[in-house]
Each structure stands twice: as C-alpha cells, then as structure tokens.
Design a protein that fits this description.
Length: about 210
C-alpha cells in the first residue's frame, strides 16, 4: 500500500542520507567507532539538530549522550537506501563521458555495478571500452528486460537525451541519472537526477567577487 502523502519522508531528507553515509564511511576508515550528530554536523556543514531530525524518520539509531555506533548506523542507512544489495546499471552513450563513467571504479563499493554500455553510433558498436563491448541501443530493451535492470545513466548529447529517455522508460527503467544538459520528460513513476557541472558552477559564481 502506498504511503499517504502526509507520511512520506521529504525528498530533501532522503537526499542528505548519502552524505551522512559517506561521512560515516570516512570516519570508519579513520578508525573511529562512535560519533555524534555534532561531529557529523561539523564535517558536513549541517546542524546537529537537522541530522537528528532526519535520522528520527527511520527510528532510533543512537542514545542521548552516547552517540552513534558507526558500523551500526552505516548498516542501517545502507538498508534504508537499499544499497545493502548490488544494483546493476546500464550506461547509454559511449563517448568521452560514457567511457569515463564506465571506467570509474567508485560505484562498486557503494552498491552499484556498471554492467552494460550502449550507443546508437554504428561505428562504436562492437568496440571494446575497458571491460565493456559497446552494444547497439536497439538491444537495450531486451537486455534491460531480461536482466530486470531498473537504473540507467544517460551520457549523450542534449538533442538525443529525450529520445534515449523514452527508450529507457519503455524498456522498464525506473531511475535515470542524466548527464545531458537538458530536463527530461518522464512518467511520474520514473525518478530522474541531473548532473550538470555548468549549472553548479553558475550557482557558485553568484557568491564570488567579480573584482577579486
């Protein structure tokens, strides 16, 4: 049964959980076993009250005055984010960006596996990109259906991104990470996240002193 609207956890809270998880893993690497909302807040620039409020949506993870057991909290957050399993991911676009994404090893220990690389350019199909053989986008629907893939990354030019998104949605993809500098139109049941470095830099320049 779907959650009632008033019981849904705000998406902005969900968006902070991976930041908490990353900070906790860093603390673990440093050999620290127990932390506090104050320490996490200092590392992340988020108030300790906000951290406690966010975590309270998912139950009690620590005791007043004793802090959080880092291993326990990592395990709980991995479960909440459903990354206590390995998600296979399809990448569409075998250009410079798509190739770089397929080579990046940082996904593997965070719950994701880049498993396929697709492209529409016939000159790229069949080429070897790292450990991947580039497959034709015409094979995408079959591969996604047979392997029950739910996540895809779009690394194609803006003018091709919507068409690719339509193919992905039709194939059954439920979550898209879009690197193309364009907003996609997808059904309500499909989640889209955007990565556009230019947008982020334009955000930052607002705060810069142009005369510095």
């Amino acid at each position: 049964m779907p959650l009632k609207l008033e019981n849904r956890i705000p998406d902005i809270v969900i968006g902070r959980l991976p930041l908490y998880l990353r900070a906790l893993n860093r603390l673990k690497q440093e050999g620290i076993e127990v932390t506090s909302s104050h320490e996490l807040g200092q590392r992340l620039g988020i108030s300790s009250a906000q951290i406690r409020k966010d975590l309270s949506h998912f139950g009690g993870f620590g005791k007043q005055g004793t802090g959080y057991q880092i291993n326990f909290l990592i395990t709980k957050l991995q479960s909440v984010l459903k990354i206590n399993q390995r998600w296979q991911v399809a990448v569409v676009g075998a250009g410079n960006l798509g190739s770089a994404i397929s080579h990046y090893r940082g996904f593997q220990d965070r719950g994701f596996e880049i498993a396929w690389l697709f492209d529409a350019d016939e000159s790229k199909i069949g080429q070897q990109v790292g450990r991947f053989t580039v497959q034709a986008i015409s094979e995408l629907k079959k591969v996604i259906s047979e392997n029950k893939i739910q996540i895809a990354m779009v690394a194609v030019p803006a003018e091709q991104a919507q068409e690719v998104a339509d193919i992905l949605v039709d194939a059954g993809i439920r979550a898209i990470l879009n690197y193309a500098p364009i907003n996609l139109t997808v059904p309500d049941h499909v989640m889209v996240q955007y990565i556009d470095p230019v947008v982020h830099m334009q955000h930052m320049t607002y705060y810069l002193d142009e005369n510095a």
